[in-house]
Amino acid sequence: MATLFVNEHQTAGHIEPEVYGHFSEHLGRCIYEGIYVGEDSDIPNENGMRKDVVEALRELQVPVLRWPGGCFADEYHWRDGIGPKALRKKMINTHWGGVVEDNSFGTHEFMELCRQIGCKTYINGNLGSGTVQEMSEWVEYMTFNGVSPQADLRAKNGHPEPWKIDFFGVGNENWGCGGNMTPEFYANEYRRYQTYVRTYDKKAPIQKVCCGANVDDYEWTEGVLKTTFRHMPEHAHGFMDFLSLHYYVHPEGWRRKGSATKFDRTGWYKTMNKALFMDELITRHGAIMDRFDPDKQIGLSVDEWGSWYTCEPGTNPGFLYQQNTVRDALIAGITLNIFNKHCDRVRMACLAQMVNVLQAVLLTEGDQMIKTPTYHVMHMYRHHQNADLLTSNLTGTKPIGPKDWQVPSLTESVSRDKDGVVTVTVANLSDEEDQDLTVRFAEGISHIEECRIVTGEGMADYNTFEDGEKVVEKDHEACLKDGAVQVNVPKHAVVMLRLK
Ligand code: AHR
To answer: Which residues in 111-189 belong to E strands, given as ranges?
Structure first.
């Protein structure tokens, strides 16, 4: 029997809504087909955006969306994606599948998508192959409210009002696809480029994201911070608001990756173990950040995370299309619990990617759309957005799994929202054993508002276009005894409780 002790009188931080963000790249069928089908499509759409997809994303309360990449961002030239669609350049998407990119989804369409979803905007600029002038003019085009060449061009293209950029990435993965730079070289470029990412509306400052490390490249974090902060003002705001981190779970390693749907017990535990590695990454990159930024002015933005398997047989390998099983539900549950617990530093995160790519929350085929197990977990966890993290401590769990890939049997996080409702989320990492859990409070609670679960009969269950309801969010039983909650957390399940 495991016990979770919650001190409802002790707040341990605030969970920013942006920790539940998403990422959409011009990659495979994410933007085209998955989100944008064009105004003339037979698929129901509003201004070209699929209605079914937008509705599902609104239900998820997506707080922020990152675009246009990824690797694509450092080859994206924004002028190709504005103006009359018939005149926009057609080109090859060299990074992803060698298909034609017709630029019919550009800046105006992205802003329209965010308007429909009701989320903040995170634009990733091109530092790798673009100029300072190009980046600076894109920001002017999007946000300047007055007479200027770029604001006039925006008006000519049908949008006199400026938009708001909430977050702006100054390059992406510049240690790799974004220019193969050394940390010192990138850091100097960052200093220069960010200077010209101007906030024109002082009431709506653009928060700048500096390119952080790939996985456990601590040298990158150290090198970038050392150079960026040399002789810079003590206050990071306006200079650097976030440092990013990218980490993907590949059960069989980067080269082999492994199947999304066919795996054994070892494959299950390898994946759980690798998902938990996120905790160490945040702790160690965070410790380096603490030295340069002890007041934690700079947030860590884990703006690419999730599973990355061998793509589905028969699909374009450059499209990164994969299925999503109960195992992915667990990756999401584990990772989001980790982010919540590190909310003092992790202030933004974007799941990769939103539709039809990697650990997507939605899959589409023609006019059909299904929600993945990951969608349902993110839906349950939406209550953590903008809530206060509460101090919590699990006892009575045990290490489980094969010797080299052991993991704790349960992970959890607890928060309280502005209405005083406490959300507890628990993931059972076992492939074979249910767990009885007691949730105790300093004073006790009096009411269970809701208990929900995401799981499947098998650990590799997933939804298909024939059966989209195999793994869904369901009601689950929990009872109250002397102010404590008793709940059974079945094997390979993620459970959410709402308590008052
Ligand atoms: O999400 C797919 C790719 O993974 C992104 O384009 C890149 O940033 C990362 O390497």
So the answer is: 120-125, 167-170
User: Could you tell which of 246, 305, 355 is best to mutate to test the pocket of ligand 1, judged by most ligand atoms within 8 Å of the CB?
Assistant: 246
By the 8 A CB rule, do 305 and 282 touch?
no
* From 8, 109, 173, 473, active-site residue: 173
pLDDT tens column, 20-32: 999 999 999 999 9
Dist. CA 234–CA 248, nearest whole Å: 33
Q: Which residue in 83, 91, 75, 213 sits closest to 141, CA to CA?
A: 83
Closest Cα to atom 5, ligand 1: which residue? 70
Two tokens, residue 329: 């539900």
304: annotated active-site residue: yes
pTM of the model: 0.97
- pLDDT number for residue 70: 97
Q: Please, what are the domains in the chain? A: 2-8+390-499 (2.60.40.1180), 16-385 (3.20.20.80)
| Sequence-ordered strand ranges (E) for 314-457 | 346-352, 362-365, 368-371, 388-395, 399-400, 407-408, 410-416, 422-428, 435-441, 448-454
Give residue 213's identity as a one-letter amino acid code: A
